[in-house]
Amino acid sequence: MCGIAGSLQIDGGPVDRERLRQMIGAIRYRGPDDAGIYSHGPIGLAHARLRIIDLVGGRQPMLIEQDALAITFNGEIFNYIELRNELIAKGHRFTSSSDTEVLLHLYQEEGERCVERLNGQWAFAIWDAPRQRLFLSRDRFGVRPLYYTRMDGEFLFASEIKALLTCPQVPCALDLIGLDQLFTFWATIPPRTVFRGINQLPPGCSMIVQDGHITITPYWTLDLTGQIEHGGATDSQLAEELFELLQDATKIRLRADVPVGAYLSGGIDSTVVAALARKSVGDRIRTFSVTFESNDIDESRFQHEASAFLGTSHTSIRCRHEDIVGVFSDVIWHTEQPILRTAPAPLYLLSRLAHDSGFKVVLTGEGADELFGGYDIFKEAKIRQFWGRRPASRWRPLLLKRLYPYLPNIQRQSLEYLKHFFHVTPQALSGPFFSHLPRWELTAKTKQFFSESTQAELAEADAMSSLLRDLPSSYATWSLFTKAEFLESRYLLPGYILSSQGDRVAMAHAVEGRYPFLDHRVATFAARLPASLKMKVLDQKYLLKQAVKGLIPEAIRTRTKQPYRAPDGISFFGGHDEFVGDLLSSQRIKQDGVFNPRATDALVQKFRSGRETSVKDNMALTGILSTTVLLDRFMHGRNALSAPASQERHTPF
Amino acid sequence: MLQTIRKFVIDNYLFGEEGKLGDEDSFMETGIIDSTGILELVRFLETTYGIKVTDEELIPDNLDSVSKIASFILMKQSVSSQTAQEHSFRSSGEPRP
Hints:
Largest interface: A-B, 33 and 22 residues
CATH class of the largest domain in chain A: Alpha Beta
Largest sheet of chain B: none
Strand content of chain B: under 5%
CATH topology of chain B: Non-ribosomal Peptide Synthetase Peptidyl Carrier Protein, Chain A
Strand order of the largest sheet of chain A: 2-3-1-9-8-10
Distance between the termini of chain B: 29 Å
Structural class of chain A: alpha+beta
CATH architecture of the largest domain in chain A: 4-Layer Sandwich
Oligomer: heterodimer
Shape of chain B: elongated
CATH superfamily of chain B: ACP-like
Shape of chain A: globular
């Protein structure tokens, strides 16, 4: 796992090596083991390496065919061994045993379509010298990040935005439309980011930069249109097939020349992954987890149970309120976008624990909830739909209360309030975003803290209409369940779960996450399953639970889903007020101009007084705080971005 | 009373933006109170006015605007004082009025 950066002079002029050095220097923490730069004429590629496969031979940027092809690559191709054998049979010769070289030869053999053959997680750029073409690609689910911008006859790309911002010509300003989307969906709609003029390559897309033109082409989408019965197979046959797929997905994700550990949350998904890894390795594995002080959100009991059952060597880290405050600013430096929950902070501490324990690679359970029907939002939508068919029913809405035992506000609400907040009307039922409207409308209420000037500038902005335009044409014909799955896996998964809670906080400590559930074979299998096998009546992840019987402890397999949560607003008060007092002072908020200083102050006072706060209040506080940190560290602290780069190897080409 | 309720709503849901609240404005229609904010309101009413709001009373008819809340409080207080009077009459053995 690594960091990449590069520059292409559209006008054909020579690339500035010093610029490449600064770009890669800004993200050296992604790859502290080695660094290299390649430049030739208009192209420059830079690489910061975290050595995982072929520790000696896998140095980058890598070139083949007398420099005809050059690559800078962040990620892993898990099926590289099979691809390598295939390419050798076709006459290709290899000088290393790295997956990077396989990727280059595969491109040489199959051109841009090579990405369809890859099983992995990647962001890479290949310079095709004979064609004077730069080919970039990002993996199917967006596990690995890839940003780009174009200015003054130059195309720039990098793993992280801060690398692009080392170039003084790249503007560093908040994109308010991006901010508006994030304060609705928790993520922006790709290619938009919260930085004006800086884009991200959408997941599942490739990009060609040639003759001054940029072309983006999707090579893969999660095809949910064909949800069908699997050829008359029984549930147990399908469960068996799923088990085998997961077993292989995990096995190839253990390919590494360094030890591979696993995160254990105490839930089904990470326990399944750790169990499958244990089976493949045939030996004791190392597991890591984060624990909390509050019993409401702490899952230590289940983590210990999983660890004892699987016989793992387990280490955990306790995340206290002051720890969240202590790392919050650095977390935002890495997420490069505001967050509305503090949940990335404990994961930042967890990756530090893995790193300090000597681990560069961890397996985790992300993706299972999106693909196999695990999220409460799917269940909520199903209950609301059921209720909406008979709106006068007095007992149907009670199912919603059973869904959220941990939300006291929902527990006490009357039918009228539930009906209002959960949109159970015939019109709402036929709307395109029925499943997600309650969540998005609640989140969007945080925009009441936007300043008058921000609101004026966003007067024409409409996040949901923008999303509507981004949907595939067949979306309208899909079932409610399929639509909900799509919205989760297409937007929240890459834009928040795999980014702010994933790559960014793990790579902050040079730790690579690997996700067996996001193996595209597993995802394709899941996409073809009928909804009834993902949620049987109201039993979430039904088929997955059938598939893993006996593999994990029964108490974990059958436990009620507990969403991963971290202490939010409360972390910043009660003895740790200084951080907020400084960042959210009226003077600072007024100076930044994004939020309303009086409303922000009233919100801070509400928290400080110890009065009860709502979910919206917590999202607003975390959102304002993280946006202010972002402005502070990126916009106001821009000079620090261009700090002298650390020493790196200069590729002698 | 109207002023106290208004102040609570402005401080806690509108965060100081007082120009936006009329006494008859529906909290639901204007989006002033979201699904997670109702219990804050109930706790405030219970503490400030010494009443107990039952689950059955948690309905928009009682709580959906400043004036509805005020009427609800007055109703609760009058019921409660009646009950207290009844209780006091009974315990002193005096005949009921």
